[in-house]
Amino acid sequence: MMMKNMHISNDSETADVSAILPPEKKRKGRGKTTWLSTQKKRKENDNGKLKVIIPPYRTVAVDPGAKDFITELSVNVLHNTRHDVKNWKGVPDLAKNRIVAYMLDTFQLLDIQHNRDTILQTAKNLYRYRRSRHHDHFKKFATKEESLQNIPTDVNEVEWKFLVDYFSSDDFKKMSERNKNNKAKQEVNHICGRKKFQAVSYEVRDTTTGKEPNFQKLWEITHMKPNGQWVTNASAEVNDKVKDVVAEKIQEIEEVTDVDPIINVAFVQIMGEKSKYILGQ
C-alpha cells in the first residue's frame, strides 16, 4: 500500500491561568471583535446561545454554526492556554475546563461527555495547529539568538524562550524529521483543507433519511476536483481498487439489496484501519 494516513499535565491544576501573561505583555488578536460579534448573534437567539450541531456519533461540529464554533474555540484556546509546555497534555486541566465551560455557555449544547470530548479534541487540534505556526516562525531565523529576539505576537517572552529551547532540542528535531518523512510518503491529497471528513460526510447527507454517503462516495467528494479530475493518480488508484473488490464481493452474493455495506467493507479492506479510525476517513 502506498500511503499512511491521509488527513490532520504536569502543571498544577490550581495554577492561575488568567495570570499566564505578565501585565506588560498582552496577547494580540481579534478577541474583542470576535466577542462583540458573538454577543450580537447570541442576542438574536431566544436562549442567548449560538446554534451548532455535534452529531452523537461524530467528534466534530457541523453546520449550522460550525464556523462560529471553530472561531470562538480558537480564540478561547488562545486566551486560556500556555505554550511553555511541550504539548497539549501539558496544558493544565484548569485551562481545559475553562475552555469547555465557555463553549457550553456560548453554544446550544448539552453538557454531556460526548460534547465535552468533542470540544477538547477540537481544542487540541487548534492548539497543535498554532504550535505548528510557531515552529514555522522559529524556522525563519538562522540562529537561536535571532529567534529569541523575534517573539510572535500571540505568546509572551517566557513562552517563546521555552518554545525556542524546545524547537532547538535534539528530541524535537528527531520527531520533526520523522514527521516530515512520513508526510513525504503520503501520496494521497484531498481538497477539504482543514475541514474534517466527518463534517463533510454529515453536510452531504440525505436530509430526509439522515443517511450519509458510503466510504467510496465520500472518497470521491473529498479527493476529486470540481472539474471531475482526481487530485492525484493515487486517489484514482484507491477508487479503482475499491471498485474491483466490490465487484468480486457482489459476485459471491446471490442477492444484494444494499450495496453500501459491501462498499464500506471493501474500502476498509483496501485502506486499512487503526484503533480509533479508518484510514482515509
Provide an overview of this structure.
With 281 residues, the protein is mainly alpha-helical. The chain folds into two domains: 17-184, no CATH class; 197-271, no CATH class. It is 52% helix and 0% strand. The chain has helices at 31-43, 66-80, 93-106, 113-138, 144-148, 157-168, 170-184, 197-203, 215-223, 233-251, 260-271. Helix 2 (66-80) packs antiparallel against helix 3, helix 2 (66-80) packs across helix 4 and helix 10 (233-251) packs across helix 11.
List keywords for this structure.
mainly alpha
How is this fold's topology laid out?
Blueprint: H1 31-43, H2 66-80, H3 93-106, H4 113-138, H5 144-148, H6 157-168, H7 170-184, H8 197-203, H9 215-223, H10 233-251, H11 260-271
Average pLDDT figure: 82
Give the topology string: H per helix, E per strand. HHHHHHHHHHH
Number of strands: 0
Major pleated sheet: none
Roughly what percent helix? 40-55%
Q: How far is the N terminus from the C terminus?
A: 16 Å
Radius of gyration: 22 Å
How much of the sequence lies in strands comes to under 5%
Structural domain count:
2
Low-confidence stretches: 1-31
Structural class: mainly alpha
Please report the number of helical segments.
Answer: 11
Taken from the alpha-carbon principal axes, the silhouette is: globular
